[in-house]
Amino acid sequence: MTNEETALSFEQAMEKLEHIVLQLENGDVPLEKAIELFQEGMKLSQLCSQKLEHVERKIEILLEEEGGMVKKPFNPAADEKGDNH
Q: Does the pTM exceed 0.90?
């Protein structure tokens, strides 16, 4: 991953990733370019994942510092279903 990519904010990385997905979905991209875009998309996906994990850890630390609060792993799928187990 280049310094330029790691300097991107989460929102910038997501925007670039969405643009790449649109290009690939249109299907007008030559094979070699499609492979390059796919590789760049995978790097951006990894970057976004790392940034989310970092934020998750920060939130857990903040909750621990507040004391008395129970550390709960982030699980958006379970929360959407109303599953609080």
A: no
